[in-house]
């Protein structure tokens, strides 16, 4: 259990201006706290707090609110250009239609209500598992207009935050890593939007409002910081303008450059890598193994069957490696294969008439394929590369998908056609001094990481 003081949430009703001042990003922020105005707050709280954001800038998230004079007869109400900010302790407090009705740059299955609520319903995400749901939302009247999945955590298990990258420096500064508020998707180091918003609410307004709410959650609950994980480049730019410390990590993604066939893609590899890839791709046939993808009607008709196979394969990896904690249970696999049959795919390696000996779970969108979990009951030469990489590359080419994210880490992917890419995040530290020092350090690290990636691309595309 997490040692988080008090009741998670925000005591009071927070109001954020819908039409954020369009001055330069460096503009000062003015916040008003009006005592004496009592309305039911989030999570059942009823306390006299209201907050209005007039503008947002680089120093926004370290500007303390200054109380105005006011009496108990202050009955100010939200104007037509204001948003009410609330914290939700569970996604079942929201409807799927309301959550999924919010959009962004592209529809990301991991941000769907079905995926996130399923993690909670099946107990994979729960306080006793180290995840306290604390979802950030913004409302215009009764309409949900912005939201971000968020969780309080006392460690980094399962969030792929790579906190250890600066943890030692933080300790030397006298700061704390935990507890923290994480804005992201549990167990899923996949890049994409993290802030959902209505079409008539600009992204920058949604990000600013929800970050202000995240800051308030940290303040009122004694959290050391909040972080945004694997967000989109557009969100990262906004977060940097708001004064958050940028966090740049490197992953390896495959890009479809308009290939008509797999041979077209192979032809673009350097000679040594092309020879290696062709040799590895021949192995399944020599081993008497067929690799195929189960999806669509075949998966939906026997969802329970395929969920069981997928979970069994997943557990082989979890049981084999000490670092492979079994974050997901069988109930979640059953839910996933039933609730998202149009997005979930299972790549299986099998011999004729026999159960699968290996497999990988993929999740797809209209433009992307995400490789998630691999497992095998039998070790065969190059089987992992064929199931997890080559087969899905062929699949992307056949379907016209633009990007294949094969999971976190793995420099071995470079020799198999993947390219290094920057994935973005951001941090806000409750301690002002720590925030200023680490923001500068993380900015320098971001510049260095970007330079590494650009140097690789220049060398390998010349």
Note down, in words, how this protein is organized.
With 462 residues, the chain is an alpha+beta fold. It has 2 domains: 14-63 and 80-249 and 424-461, 3-Layer(aba) Sandwich (Aminopeptidase), CATH 3.40.630; 257-401, 3-Layer(aba) Sandwich (Aminopeptidase), CATH 3.40.630. It has helices at 96-100, 113-121, 164-172, 203-221, 233-241, 262-267, 271-286, 296-301, 303-320, 330-339, 383-399, 432-461; strands at residues 14-17, 31-33, 39-40, 46-47, 51-53, 66-67, 82-88, 132-133, 135-140, 143-148, 150-153, 180-183, 196-197, 225-231, 245-255, 290-294, 344-350, 358-364, 368-376, 403-405, 419-429. The protein has an 11-stranded mixed beta sheet. It has a 5-stranded antiparallel beta sheet with strand order 1-7-9-10-13, covered by helices on one side. α2 (113-121) packs antiparallel against α10 (330-339), α7 (271-286) packs across α11 (383-399) and α9 crosses α10. The longest helix is centred in the C-terminal third of the chain and has 30 residues, at 432-461. It is globular.
Give the helices and strands, then pairings.
Elements: E1 14-17, E2 31-33, E3 39-40, E4 46-47, E5 51-53, E6 66-67, E7 82-88, H1 96-100, H2 113-121, E8 132-133, E9 135-140, E10 143-148, E11 150-153, H3 164-172, E12 180-183, E13 196-197, H4 203-221, E14 225-231, H5 233-241, E15 245-255, H6 262-267, H7 271-286, E16 290-294, H8 296-301, H9 303-320, H10 330-339, E17 344-350, E18 358-364, E19 368-376, H11 383-399, E20 403-405, E21 419-429, H12 432-461
Parallel strand pairs: 2-6, 12-14, 19-20
Antiparallel strand pairs: 1-7, 2-5, 3-4, 7-9, 8-11, 9-10, 10-13, 11-12, 14-21, 15-20, 15-21, 16-17, 17-18, 18-19
Helix pairs in contact: 2-10, 7-11, 9-10
